[in-house]
Amino acid sequence: xxxxxxxxxxxxxxxxxxxxxxxxxxxxxxxxxxxxxxxxxxxxxxxxxxxxxxxxxxxxxxxxxxxxxxxxxxxxxxxxxxxxxxxxxxxxxxxxxxxxxxxxxxxxxxxxxxxxxxxxxxxxxxxxxxxxxxxxxxxxxxxxxxxxxxxxxxxxxxxxxxxxxxxxxxxxxxxxxxxxxxxxxxxxxxxxxxxxxxxxxxxxxxxxxxxxxxxxxxxxxxxxxxxxxxxxxxxxxxxxxxxxx
Length: 245
Known about the structure:
elongated, three-stranded mixed sheet, alpha+beta
Protein backbone atom coordinates (compact mmCIF):
# COMPACT_ATOMS: atom_id res chain seq x y z
CA UNK A 1 0.00 0.00 0.00
CA UNK A 2 2.82 2.42 0.89
CA UNK A 3 4.50 1.94 -2.47
CA UNK A 4 1.24 2.50 -4.27
CA UNK A 5 0.60 5.74 -2.39
CA UNK A 6 4.09 6.98 -3.22
CA UNK A 7 3.52 6.26 -6.89
CA UNK A 8 0.18 8.05 -6.82
CA UNK A 9 1.78 11.03 -5.08
CA UNK A 10 4.61 11.09 -7.62
CA UNK A 11 2.16 11.08 -10.51
CA UNK A 12 0.23 13.91 -8.89
CA UNK A 13 3.39 16.02 -8.52
CA UNK A 14 4.36 15.45 -12.16
CA UNK A 15 0.88 16.41 -13.30
CA UNK A 16 0.98 19.55 -11.17
CA UNK A 17 4.39 20.54 -12.53
CA UNK A 18 3.27 20.04 -16.12
CA UNK A 19 0.16 22.12 -15.52
CA UNK A 20 2.27 24.93 -14.07
CA UNK A 21 4.70 24.88 -17.00
CA UNK A 22 1.93 24.85 -19.59
CA UNK A 23 0.20 27.72 -17.82
CA UNK A 24 3.43 29.72 -17.80
CA UNK A 25 3.94 29.00 -21.50
CA UNK A 26 0.42 30.20 -22.33
CA UNK A 27 1.10 33.43 -20.48
CA UNK A 28 4.44 33.91 -22.21
CA UNK A 29 6.37 33.54 -18.94
CA UNK A 30 8.33 30.35 -19.66
CA UNK A 31 12.05 30.92 -18.99
CA UNK A 32 11.38 34.56 -18.26
CA UNK A 33 14.34 34.55 -15.88
CA UNK A 34 16.68 33.77 -18.83
CA UNK A 35 16.58 37.08 -20.66
CA UNK A 36 18.48 37.49 -23.92
CA UNK A 37 20.03 40.93 -23.74
CA UNK A 38 20.66 42.93 -26.93
CA UNK A 39 24.24 43.26 -28.12
CA UNK A 40 26.09 46.22 -26.69
CA UNK A 41 27.31 48.88 -29.06
CA UNK A 42 25.96 50.91 -31.92
CA UNK A 43 23.43 49.60 -34.45
CA UNK A 44 23.78 50.66 -38.09
CA UNK A 45 20.78 50.41 -40.42
CA UNK A 46 21.95 50.94 -43.99
CA UNK A 47 19.84 51.18 -47.12
CA UNK A 48 20.78 51.75 -50.74
CA UNK A 49 20.45 50.59 -54.32
CA UNK A 50 23.31 48.24 -55.08
CA UNK A 51 24.41 46.72 -58.38
CA UNK A 52 27.21 44.33 -59.32
CA UNK A 53 27.34 42.06 -56.26
CA UNK A 54 26.92 38.94 -58.39
CA UNK A 55 30.03 39.73 -60.46
CA UNK A 56 32.29 38.82 -57.53
CA UNK A 57 33.54 35.21 -57.21
CA UNK A 58 33.19 33.20 -54.02
CA UNK A 59 36.61 34.21 -52.73
CA UNK A 60 35.27 37.70 -52.07
CA UNK A 61 32.30 39.27 -50.30
CA UNK A 62 30.66 42.68 -50.55
CA UNK A 63 30.02 43.71 -46.96
CA UNK A 64 29.43 46.44 -44.47
CA UNK A 65 32.62 46.22 -42.43
CA UNK A 66 34.12 47.81 -39.37
CA UNK A 67 37.87 48.25 -38.94
CA UNK A 68 39.92 49.14 -35.90
CA UNK A 69 42.72 51.69 -36.29
CA UNK A 70 44.99 50.94 -39.25
CA UNK A 71 44.12 47.24 -39.27
CA UNK A 72 43.12 46.17 -42.80
CA UNK A 73 41.37 43.05 -41.50
CA UNK A 74 37.75 43.70 -40.59
CA UNK A 75 36.74 43.30 -36.96
CA UNK A 76 33.07 43.01 -37.88
CA UNK A 77 31.32 42.30 -41.19
CA UNK A 78 27.78 41.85 -42.48
CA UNK A 79 27.16 40.71 -46.04
CA UNK A 80 25.25 43.05 -48.32
CA UNK A 81 22.41 40.84 -49.61
CA UNK A 82 21.97 40.18 -53.30
CA UNK A 83 19.05 42.39 -54.36
CA UNK A 84 15.97 40.88 -55.98
CA UNK A 85 17.04 42.56 -59.21
CA UNK A 86 20.41 44.15 -59.89
CA UNK A 87 20.32 47.72 -58.65
CA UNK A 88 17.28 47.25 -56.41
CA UNK A 89 17.23 48.53 -52.84
CA UNK A 90 18.73 46.47 -50.04
CA UNK A 91 18.87 46.87 -46.28
CA UNK A 92 21.71 45.83 -43.98
CA UNK A 93 21.52 45.93 -40.18
CA UNK A 94 24.81 45.69 -38.29
CA UNK A 95 24.56 45.40 -34.51
CA UNK A 96 27.18 45.40 -31.79
CA UNK A 97 29.50 48.03 -33.28
CA UNK A 98 31.91 48.66 -30.44
CA UNK A 99 33.89 51.77 -29.55
CA UNK A 100 37.12 50.31 -30.91
CA UNK A 101 35.70 50.39 -34.46
CA UNK A 102 37.14 53.55 -36.02
CA UNK A 103 36.17 53.01 -39.66
CA UNK A 104 32.96 51.75 -41.26
CA UNK A 105 32.69 51.02 -44.99
CA UNK A 106 30.72 49.32 -47.69
CA UNK A 107 33.60 47.39 -49.18
CA UNK A 108 34.91 44.17 -50.69
CA UNK A 109 36.89 41.76 -48.52
CA UNK A 110 38.56 38.43 -49.24
CA UNK A 111 38.02 35.15 -47.38
CA UNK A 112 40.23 36.34 -44.54
CA UNK A 113 38.17 39.55 -44.25
CA UNK A 114 41.12 41.51 -45.61
CA UNK A 115 40.10 44.83 -47.13
CA UNK A 116 40.26 44.92 -50.93
CA UNK A 117 38.19 47.87 -52.13
CA UNK A 118 36.13 50.69 -50.62
CA UNK A 119 32.80 51.58 -52.25
CA UNK A 120 31.32 53.90 -49.61
CA UNK A 121 32.99 55.37 -46.52
CA UNK A 122 30.41 55.52 -43.74
CA UNK A 123 30.29 57.79 -40.68
CA UNK A 124 32.66 56.79 -37.90
CA UNK A 125 31.01 55.41 -34.74
CA UNK A 126 32.77 58.17 -32.78
CA UNK A 127 30.55 60.69 -34.57
CA UNK A 128 27.47 59.09 -32.99
CA UNK A 129 28.48 58.69 -29.38
CA UNK A 130 25.45 58.27 -27.13
CA UNK A 131 23.14 57.13 -29.93
CA UNK A 132 21.64 53.66 -30.15
CA UNK A 133 21.00 53.46 -33.89
CA UNK A 134 22.42 55.22 -36.93
CA UNK A 135 20.47 55.20 -40.18
CA UNK A 136 22.37 55.72 -43.41
CA UNK A 137 21.13 55.80 -47.02
CA UNK A 138 24.07 55.37 -49.41
CA UNK A 139 22.04 56.05 -52.55
CA UNK A 140 23.02 54.16 -55.72
CA UNK A 141 26.26 52.18 -55.58
CA UNK A 142 27.98 50.13 -58.29
CA UNK A 143 30.12 47.49 -56.58
CA UNK A 144 30.90 45.48 -59.72
CA UNK A 145 34.26 43.72 -59.91
CA UNK A 146 35.14 45.19 -63.31
CA UNK A 147 34.27 48.67 -62.07
CA UNK A 148 36.59 48.04 -59.12
CA UNK A 149 39.45 46.89 -61.37
CA UNK A 150 38.89 49.94 -63.54
CA UNK A 151 39.09 52.32 -60.58
CA UNK A 152 41.87 50.71 -58.56
CA UNK A 153 44.07 49.36 -61.36
CA UNK A 154 43.47 51.06 -64.70
CA UNK A 155 42.52 54.56 -63.51
CA UNK A 156 45.09 54.57 -60.72
CA UNK A 157 48.06 53.11 -62.60
CA UNK A 158 47.50 52.87 -66.35
CA UNK A 159 45.45 55.65 -67.91
CA UNK A 160 48.16 58.30 -67.63
CA UNK A 161 49.76 56.52 -70.61
CA UNK A 162 46.66 54.81 -71.94
CA UNK A 163 44.02 57.37 -72.72
CA UNK A 164 43.74 60.08 -70.08
CA UNK A 165 45.29 62.69 -72.40
CA UNK A 166 43.23 61.65 -75.41
CA UNK A 167 46.01 59.53 -76.88
CA UNK A 168 47.11 56.05 -75.84
CA UNK A 169 50.39 54.16 -75.90
CA UNK A 170 50.15 51.25 -78.37
CA UNK A 171 46.68 52.62 -79.20
CA UNK A 172 45.37 50.82 -76.10
CA UNK A 173 42.77 52.95 -74.31
CA UNK A 174 42.17 51.92 -70.70
CA UNK A 175 39.81 54.70 -69.69
CA UNK A 176 36.50 53.64 -68.19
CA UNK A 177 34.51 54.23 -71.36
CA UNK A 178 36.80 52.14 -73.57
CA UNK A 179 38.84 49.63 -71.57
CA UNK A 180 36.46 46.66 -71.62
CA UNK A 181 35.99 46.64 -75.39
CA UNK A 182 39.71 47.30 -75.90
CA UNK A 183 40.85 44.40 -73.72
CA UNK A 184 38.44 41.48 -73.48
CA UNK A 185 38.79 39.02 -76.33
CA UNK A 186 41.12 41.33 -78.28
CA UNK A 187 44.48 40.05 -79.64
CA UNK A 188 47.68 41.72 -78.55
CA UNK A 189 49.41 43.77 -81.22
CA UNK A 190 52.81 42.61 -79.92
CA UNK A 191 51.91 38.94 -79.43
CA UNK A 192 48.93 38.31 -81.75
CA UNK A 193 48.67 34.68 -80.65
CA UNK A 194 47.58 35.93 -77.21
CA UNK A 195 44.45 37.80 -76.22
CA UNK A 196 44.92 40.91 -74.12
CA UNK A 197 42.33 39.47 -71.75
CA UNK A 198 41.33 35.85 -72.21
CA UNK A 199 38.22 35.35 -70.03
CA UNK A 200 38.80 32.51 -67.58
CA UNK A 201 42.56 32.39 -68.09
CA UNK A 202 44.74 35.07 -66.53
CA UNK A 203 47.90 33.00 -67.06
CA UNK A 204 47.48 33.28 -70.83
CA UNK A 205 46.24 36.88 -70.91
CA UNK A 206 48.77 39.36 -72.27
CA UNK A 207 47.64 42.06 -69.82
CA UNK A 208 48.42 39.84 -66.85
CA UNK A 209 51.73 38.63 -68.27
CA UNK A 210 52.92 42.20 -68.88
CA UNK A 211 52.26 43.13 -65.25
CA UNK A 212 53.79 39.94 -63.83
CA UNK A 213 57.02 39.77 -65.81
CA UNK A 214 59.16 42.02 -67.95
CA UNK A 215 60.08 41.31 -71.54
CA UNK A 216 56.69 41.35 -73.25
CA UNK A 217 56.90 44.96 -74.42
CA UNK A 218 59.55 47.55 -75.21
CA UNK A 219 58.73 49.13 -71.84
CA UNK A 220 58.84 47.06 -68.69
CA UNK A 221 55.60 47.10 -66.70
CA UNK A 222 56.26 44.95 -63.63
CA UNK A 223 56.90 47.99 -61.46
CA UNK A 224 53.38 49.32 -62.08
CA UNK A 225 51.75 46.99 -59.54
CA UNK A 226 54.79 45.48 -57.84
CA UNK A 227 54.01 47.44 -54.70
CA UNK A 228 50.33 46.51 -54.79
CA UNK A 229 50.10 42.72 -54.92
CA UNK A 230 46.46 42.81 -53.81
CA UNK A 231 45.51 44.78 -56.90
CA UNK A 232 47.39 42.38 -59.15
CA UNK A 233 45.53 39.48 -57.53
CA UNK A 234 42.24 41.34 -57.92
CA UNK A 235 42.81 41.86 -61.64
CA UNK A 236 43.87 38.24 -62.18
CA UNK A 237 40.83 36.96 -60.28
CA UNK A 238 38.56 39.16 -62.38
CA UNK A 239 40.02 37.56 -65.53
CA UNK A 240 40.01 34.01 -64.12
CA UNK A 241 36.34 34.27 -63.20
CA UNK A 242 35.19 35.28 -66.65
CA UNK A 243 36.14 38.97 -66.97
CA UNK A 244 32.53 40.05 -66.55
CA UNK A 245 31.65 43.65 -67.51
